[in-house]
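Query protein
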Amino acid sequence: EQPFRRAVELSPADPDGWLVLVEYLVATRRTPDAEAVIEQAKGKVRPDALPLLLARSSALLGRFDEARES
């Protein structure tokens, strides 16, 4: 987990680091942590990349209706 968090620290505007961190947290069944990371990303990811990040993160959490709306 630490390398993923470090990637986010080094490049907070890049959505890729955030997405990998969310994927890891979902895979390790840490949904509340994944949700918290998504909220943090909202204020840091570049605006042009945020909708896709939110859609992909919602899909990872099984929230397909939210994913479609993003």
